[in-house]
């Protein structure tokens, strides 16, 4: 009897020991798993890395951007000459995408990103960072696709009307625009539960950056890189390949192609100048996209944390809209002449004096 009681007592003690050991293991795991968060220290204070600097900068940008964008719309709609009439709708389409991207990033959204975590705050007038993240990356894809369509139109109009491309072009263009809202849809369908995701995101940081002071909630787009990485590769790669292909085709045919039949030499010359202007406009715009987007990929992949660099990336995307509009105005001569016309009032033109000599068959013009 006492032997059985002793055995039961030993079993109970052993069970208690196993339970305590398991409980301690769980608590130790949770402690060390969150040790990075528990011991996290604030990052170095820097006004240029703060959310206040980002908001102030974007409000200043808005003061300059709105009239510049409005002037761009006026130039495209009212100052496009007849030889550019076939490209007006494509310039307007591209300008609309650029303005929409500007409004999402610089006015409504104002993303305060905290890479290398795929997370951030929305500092704009509407606090919906998840929605504006999706709209931002979608409008980037839409702007890139509009550049492809612009290049494709110039290639087809001048060089490709007799090629096999004429049978496929409409389907390719329509499919390209259909894919624009789909590139980054998968990550939106698998947004993690935010309470746990915030812990994981903060644990991935080496220090805590300065956070917004108005109690805004951190939004975590993803805790795993695979799905969002695939979406970025496809969403960036497809428009880049499309733009690159027709950029090369336009450059090649500009240099080596013969004059298209049925077009006068003057018409061909004007179309060539238009293509060159579009190449300048779109090339600079593409660079302003590729550098910030690939910087984000670099920061996340190599776990680089610098809040000033994060703010600078968002700033670069924000000024893309202004830069694109200014480049469009300066690259195309009709818009450039109209924009610079007020300055001509302050520039004295050389006087022209006609001298009529006694011999009627001679006439000379002297400029002073």
UniProtKB/TrEMBL annotation:
Matching entries from Pfam families are given as: 7TM_GPCR_Srh
Q: Which residues form a coiled coil?
A: none
Record field: transmembrane: 12-32, 56-77, 89-111, 131-151, 171-191, 225-253, 274-300, 312-331
List the InterPro entries.
Answer: 7TM_GPCR_serpentine_rcpt_Srh (IPR019422), Nematode_rcpt-like_serp_H (IPR053220)
Q: What keywords sit in the KW lines?
A: Membrane, Transmembrane, Transmembrane helix
Q: Which domain of life is it from?
A: Eukaryota
PANTHER family documented for this protein: SERPENTINE RECEPTOR, SERPENTINE RECEPTOR, CLASS H
Name of the featured protein: Serpentine Receptor, class H
Q: What organism does this protein naturally occur in?
A: Caenorhabditis latens
């Amino acid at each position: 009897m006492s032997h059985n009681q002793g055995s039961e007592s030993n079993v109970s003690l052993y069970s208690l020991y196993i339970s305590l050991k398991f409980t301690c293991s769980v608590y130790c795991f949770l402690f060390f798993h969150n040790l990075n968060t528990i011991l996290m220290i604030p990052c170095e204070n820097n006004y240029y890395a703060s959310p206040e600097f980002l908001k102030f900068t974007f409000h200043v940008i808005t003061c300059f951007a709105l009239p510049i964008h409005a002037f761009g719309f006026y130039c495209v709609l009212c100052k496009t000459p007849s030889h550019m009439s076939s490209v007006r709708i494509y310039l307007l389409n591209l300008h609309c995408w650029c303005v929409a991207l500007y409004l999402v990033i610089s006015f409504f959204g104002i993303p305060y990103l905290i890479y290398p975590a795929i997370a951030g705050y929305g500092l704009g007038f509407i606090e919906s960072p998840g929605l504006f993240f999706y709209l931002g990356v979608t409008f980037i894809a839409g702007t890139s696709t509009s550049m492809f369509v612009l290049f494709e139109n110039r290639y087809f109009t001048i060089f490709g009307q007799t090629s096999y491309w004429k049978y496929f072009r409409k389907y390719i263009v329509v499919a390209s625009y259909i894919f624009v809202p789909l590139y980054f849809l998968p990550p939106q369908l698998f947004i993690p539960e935010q309470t746990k995701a915030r812990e994981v995101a903060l644990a991935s940081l080496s220090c805590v950056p300065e956070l917004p002071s108005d109690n805004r909630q951190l939004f975590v787009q993803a805790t795993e890189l695979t799905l969002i990485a695939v979406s970025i590769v496809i969403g960036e790669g497809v428009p880049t390949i499309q733009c690159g292909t027709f950029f090369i085709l336009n450059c090649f045919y500009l240099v080596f192609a013969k004059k298209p039949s049925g077009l006068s030499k003057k018409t061909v010359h004007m179309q060539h100048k238009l293509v060159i202007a579009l190449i300048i406009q779109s090339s600079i715009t593409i660079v302003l996209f590729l550098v910030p987007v690939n910087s984000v990929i670099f920061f996340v992949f190599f776990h680089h944390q610098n809040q000033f660099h994060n703010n600078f990336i968002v700033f670069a995307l924000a000024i893309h809209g202004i830069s694109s509009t200014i480049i469009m105005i300066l690259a195309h001569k009709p818009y450039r002449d109209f924009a610079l016309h007020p300055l001509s009032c302050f520039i004295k033109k050389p006087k022209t004096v006609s001298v009529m000599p006694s011999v009627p068959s001679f006439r000379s013009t002297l400029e002073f």
